[in-house]
Amino acid sequence: MKPINRGMLVPKILVALLLSFCFAGAQAQIDDLHIDSALAALPDVKVIAKVKHLPDRLDYQLTVKQPIDHNNPSIGYFYQQVHLIHRGFDKPVVMETEGYNGRSGGNEVEKMLHCNNLDVEFRFFNKSKPDSLQWQYATFEQATADLHHINQVFHQLYANKWISTGISRGGETTLIYRYFYPDDVALSVPYVAPMPNDIEDKRVYTFQDTAGGAEMVKKIKHFQQFLLQHEAEALAKVPEHEKNLHYTAVGSIGAAFEYAVLEYPFAFWQTTVYTDKDVPTGDNLDDYLAQLKGTFNGHIVGDFSDEDAVNGFLPHAYMTYQMGYYKYRLKPFKAYLHYLSGENPSAAFLPPALPRKEYDPSFDRKVNKWVAEHGNNILYIYGGRDTWTACKMVYSDKVNAKTFIVPGANHYVARVKMMSPQMKQDFAASLESMTGLKPDVSALK
Fold first, then answer.
1. Residues 105 and 139 in one domain
2. Statement to judge: residues 214 and 179 lie in one domain
3. What residues form DSSP beta bridges with 95?
4. What is the DSSP string of 147-198?
5. What is the pLDDT of residue 445?
6. Backbone angles phi, psi at 137, to 5 degrees
7. Kindly report the CA angle at 79 between 76 and 82, in degrees rounded to 5?
8. Which of 21, 149, 214, 298 has the fewest beta carbons closer than 10 A?
């Protein structure tokens, strides 16, 4: 895919922007009129709603017109959801590269720099999709071209430094965005971003075989075996509202139960704060099911239903053929499984109507190699207990990058605000060194 030529976009908002700067020094508060007129003059941008008005910021829900195929716009367009936090035309911009649905709460980098923020919903998620999904255009080439187009358009308003950040798959997107468009931003801050090296990244197995030590590994395996040995009893205890969900992607409610048991060690370290004391070892099935519910949002099998496992994550599951993912080992539990068999199944679920594309190893190899050897000005944040940290980005000592692993933090709490005072200081110093911008870590409440 050829990058879009910056020269193609001619600024159309000079009058509005000049007016805004003229008034900026005279006003303590942001004036709606000037940002409103500037946004209205941007090509491909539409203001859907003014969400919030505070003395030092304005929030807008926007759409940006995007080609379904950036190489052939004649195919048609869709309207990508973007949430803007505006604090000043002269301030830096943080572009939040979501991996899923868009959000509106801002992020740590934006708060530390007290700057503008653009949260960009990933293509084909939520409302950011055409009327008819054409899956051949659900690719990282197209998704990062969406980000590049937004970068170009909003550069007409914001000429200061740009930074990209994202969490989990959003962090992965941040890194792939740098691969395709290395000059769009001055710094990237990916949080808990897995960079798989295969469709079955075996580093996940290595992590699960060692996390917490030998006794902990043994305890978790016993937990899984006990549940599988009492599968019929466990399924009888599934609440009615979970039984009423649909399980076509995984095959059946019984298969959903087995998937939940196989997923347990991954989720235990990724999303919970459980310790060895929380894992039951007795003969009371209810204790085991309570632990399973505590791990999976109060569900026994519901997290593996079409409604939860598929509908909200479909583009992500489809696109694993490009950047890889992880699978479930069946062999250690083969004697106990009644529904799952054959090869190790993927943890990314697709409905029967959408066949899985064959994995192409060349894409993630190219991306990982480039980021490892050329990915300068990148600050990586990972959690000390997060399973996905096993798939963290490993880079050459020739690049200007730094990794911060927050001790004991899972996928959801590996954040700057959870760092030790010394680590926060190191992070702030690294950010300032790479950008010339001075962050205020005390802004993270």
1. yes
2. no
3. 118, 164
4. HHHHHHHHHTT--S-EEEEEETHHHHHHHHHHHH-TTS-SEEEEES----SS
5. 82
6. -105, 10
7. 150
8. 214
Residue pLDDT, tens place only, 117-175: 999 999 999 999 999 999 999 999 999 999 999 999 999 999 999 999 999 999 999 99
- Residue 420 has a CB neighbour count (10 Å cut-off) of 10
If DSSP codes are grouped into helix, strand and coil, which group holds residue 97? strand
DSSP string over 240-276: HHHHTS--TTTSSHHHHHHHHHHHHHHHHHHH----G
Give the CA distances from residue 190 to residues 177, 178, 194, 404, 422, in Å, rounded to whole numbers and listed in that order. Answer: 11, 11, 10, 11, 20
Consecutive H or E run containing 94:
strand 93-97
Task: Please list, residue by residue across 174-187, b when 16 or more beta carbons sit within 10 angstroms of its beta carbon and e when fewer do.
Answer: bbbbbbbbeebbbb
Same domain, 372 and 332: no
- Specify whether 163 is located in the same domain as 81: yes
84 within some domain: yes
Report the alpha-carbon angle 54-149-100, nearest 5: 70
**349 falls within a domain:** no
Best CA proximity match to 92, nearest among 445, 443, 444, 432: 432
65 phi-psi bin (left φ>0, alpha ψ -120 to 50, beta other): beta
Domain annotation covers residue 344: no
Range of the domain at 302: 203-336
The pTM for the full model equals 0.93
* Relative orientation angle of helices 285-295 and 214-229, to the nearest 10 degrees: 110
Would you say residue 15 has pLDDT above 90? no
- CB under 8 Å to 269, separation ≥6 — which residues? 207, 208, 211, 212, 385, 386, 387, 410
Residue 341 belongs to a domain = no
* Residue 52 sits in the same domain as residue 191: yes
* Dihedral-angle region of residue 436 (phi above 0 means left; psi in -120 to 50 means alpha; beta otherwise): left
Domain count, the chain: 2
Q: Do 84 and 118 have their domain in common?
A: yes
For residues 261 and 371, state if they share a domain.
no
